[in-house]
Design brief:
mainly alpha; three-stranded antiparallel beta sheet; 4% strand; transmembrane; membrane; transmembrane helix
């Protein structure tokens, strides 16, 4: 029987991993795991509100990861251009176009005895693709492991796996990763709920997408790539932060609307209950006379 699968851009999953393993999120999860306070005098928010706060924190951290990646990509683009003299820069732009990822660039040019230029950019590495650069940049933000291990870890924590992220995988990461439910997670679901494997795998995969914020990360990633011309070239004037703010604004409005609905529903239900009881026990005068 085939199990449910879903796919996501590798870059979006990277942003989710960076958000999930950030110090801010780990600290907040520690607060949630502690549960009820040991001291009765210590006041905490209800768990439901804490979970809503966690969702907003996660969205903000994903947007921050996208924003930092976009800024770092702009800096790398500028560094590559500045590593070339005027003649070499003009040659690459005329022959290969303005996208640096189409250039045959392997390091600062040495056609002139400009030692300062070579020394200033000797740390600029050469990457074959923007995906390879993104993997290197994201891994540099996780000192204890690589971004591949981080993505594999968060998927495993949500009962999922991806063949492209296994320890034996080598070479460049694909642009899209296929995510499936892990067999142990499916078995646990079947044991607890008594459902078939296909149903359990679908629930696990969709739950992981929602809890990791993959949909938001995908939207922000698409917005960033559109602003960068689809390849990772020079960013346009409008920064992806604008799109991050837009998505987060819609999310925040949704959370506020949900909170207002919850606050207003209880009084309305209470009044409706009182009216119902009154109508049941307090009969009109004409009926009582009969």
């Amino acid at each position: 029987m085939s199990l449910a699968t879903t796919s996501a851009p590798t870059s979006a999953l990277m942003y989710c991993a960076l958000a999930e393993l950030s110090p801010e999120m780990q600290t907040f999860d520690d607060i949630l795991d502690r549960g009820c306070p040991s001291s009765p005098s210590t006041h905490t928010l209800p768990t439901e509100i804490m979970l809503l706060v966690r969702v907003e924190l996660q969205l903000s951290l994903i947007a921050q990861a996208v924003d930092l990646s976009a800024r770092a990509l702009d800096a790398y683009d500028a560094s590559v251009r500045h590593s070339l003299c005027g003649d070499c820069l003009t040659y690459n732009q005329d022959v290969f176009g303005d996208d640096i990822w189409r250039w045959q660039w392997s390091g600062p040019c040495a056609c002139r005895a400009d030692r300062r230029r070579r020394n200033a950019h000797r740390e600029t590495r050469s990457f074959r693709t923007v995906g390879e650069w993104r993997e290197h940049h994201s891994s540099s933000r996780i000192p204890t492991s690589s971004i591949r291990a981080a993505m594999s870890f968060i998927l495993e924590r949500h009962g999922c796996q991806s063949p492209a992220l296994t320890a034996s995988s080598v070479g460049a990461l694909p642009e899209m990763v296929v995510i499936t439910a892990s067999p142990p997670a499916v078995e646990r679901c079947q044991t607890w709920l008594g459902e078939d494997a296909a149903w359990c795998s679908e629930v696990i995969v969709q739950k992981a997408r929602r809890e990791l914020g993959l949909s938001v990360a995908e939207d922000l990633d698409v917005a960033m790539q559109k602003k960068n011309g689809g390849h990772g070239g020079p960013a346009a004037k409008e920064h992806p932060r604008h799109h991050c703010t837009t998505v987060l604004s819609h999310s925040a409005l949704g959370a506020v609307a949900s909170g207002c609905a919850a606050v207003l529903t209880l009084p309305v239900l209470s009044v409706a209950f009182v009216v119902l009881v009154a109508c049941h026990y307090v009969r009109p005068f004409g009926i009582r006379a009969a």
